[in-house]
UniProtKB/TrEMBL annotation:
Protein name listed in UniProt: NAD-dependent protein deacylase
Domain notes: 2 residues (Tyr-78 and Arg-81) present in a large hydrophobic pocket are probably involved in substrate specificity. They are important for desuccinylation activity, but dispensable for deacetylation activity.
Main location: cytoplasm
GO cellular component terms given for this protein: cytoplasm
Keyword entries, A-Z: Cytoplasm, Metal-binding, NAD, Transferase, Zinc
Gene coding for it: cobB
Pfam families on file: SIR2 (PF02146)
Gene3D superfamilies with a match to the protein in the record: SIR2/SIRT2 'Small Domain, TPP-binding domain
Enzyme class: transferase
Organism for this UniProt entry: Salinisphaera japonica YTM-1
UniProt-annotated binding residues for NAD(+): 111-114, 199-201, 225-227, 243
Domain Deacetylase sirtuin-type, residue spans: 8-252
Essential cofactor(s): Zn(2+)
Reactions this protein catalyses: N(6)-succinyl-L-lysyl-[protein] + NAD(+) + H2O = 2''-O-succinyl-ADP-D-ribose + nicotinamide + L-lysyl-[protein]; N(6)-acetyl-L-lysyl-[protein] + NAD(+) + H2O = 2''-O-acetyl-ADP-D-ribose + nicotinamide + L-lysyl-[protein]
Length: 252
């Protein structure tokens, strides 16, 4: 459910102030989560009713143990999500950020695996939790893009090099995040003049720790989320609106 707060005085005041913070900044960091893709028809994780975890348990689907137990089921779940992502494509929020990158130095740090920031034209994107359009071998180093023909099917694929099961190149619970993405995130945050946190419930670590650190520091933080999160009371500017509304408003 998306709030439309365009007529709300609080929203307009916060938008003015956030816009000022952004216009002063040269180096901007965006930390994004599932909410930015919600309006592309990609379900979020933790929201009641519509969130993926309302219907499935994370341990049942997004863990190495679950994959070892029932790879067919996990593959089918990721195939289904790829279908939704391909159908939806980037929305006005993703496009606004790509536009912002043309006038600012912008680093996007995302927990999303959908690739929609890049599909909208954003180029500097650090993917903390991997990418659903890639797969890798569960045993050796072999990795590849998921071929479009297979992106729709359900059959798990075996590694061309060693015969072990291929798996989505995604970070599951209990797994390490890619070091390159974490290093890029830390470096960009250390230099940022303004941080935009959009569409994340700020509950999954270590990604949420990046937000906590930004909020504790002196750099202005703008949060875009129709719902409150654990950091909402502590950010400098809070835009209680959907990403497809607030990001174009902010960048305009
Ligand atoms: C690890 C990928 C080290 C699969 C996902 C500290 C304390 C407690 C626990 C831990 C801790 N540190 C680590 C842990 C354990 C765990 C963790 O954080 N657990 C939490 C839940 C308590 N973390 C890990 O296991 C991480 N690894 O720590 O490794 C290690 C390793 C070995 C041994 C020792 C240490 C790995 C975490 C990766 C998990 N992977 N899934 C997949 O995608 O299939 S998690 C999943 O959550 C997604 O990937 C997603 O990216 C991520 C974050 O969720 P959000 O993006 O925030 O989405 P959510 O649904 O929660 O919220 C959506 C928000 O959008 C809402 O706020 C909503 O209001 C808003 N919204 C809705 N509509 C809109 C909107 N906003 C704007 N516009 C809209 N229209
Ligand atoms: Zn292999």
């Amino acid at each position: 459910q998306v709030l439309d707060v365009s007529d709300d005085d609080d929203y307009n005041l916060a938008l003015d102030q956030a816009g000022e913070a952004l216009s002063c900044a040269g180096r901007v960091v965006v930390l994004s989560g599932a909410g930015i893709s919600a309006e592309s028809g990609v379900p979020t994780f933790r929201e009641a009713q519509t969130g993926l975890w309302a219907r499935f348990s994370p341990a049942d689907l997004a863990s190495p143990e679950a994959f070892a137990k029932d790879p067919e089921r996990i593959w089918a779940w990721y195939h289904w999500r790829r279908t939704l992502i391909a159908r939806g494509g980037p929305n006005a929020g993703h496009h606004a950020l790509a536009q912002l990158a043309e006038i600012k130095s912008l680093q996007t740090i995302t927990q999303n695996v959908d690739g929609l920031h890049q599909a909208a034209g954003s180029r500097r994107v650090a993917e903390l939790h991997g990418n659903i359009w890639r797969e890798r071998c569960s045993e050796c180093d072999h990795a590849r893009l998921v071929p479009m023909a297979e992106a729709q099917g359900d059959a798990p694929v075996r590694c061309r090099d060693c015969g072990a099961m291929m798996r989505p190149a995604i970070v599951w619970f209990g797994e390490m995040l890619p070091q390159t993405a974490l290093v890029a995130a830390d470096a960009a945050l250390a230099e940022a003049d303004c941080v935009i946190v959009v569409g994340t419930s700020n509950q999954v670590y270590p990604a949420a720790a990046l937000v906590d650190t930004a909020v504790a520091g002196a750099t202005p933080v703008i949060e875009i989320n129709p719902q409150e999160t654990p950091v909402s009371q502590h950010v400098d500017h809070r835009l209680a609106a959907s990403a497809s509304r607030a990001l174009p408003d902010l960048v305009a």
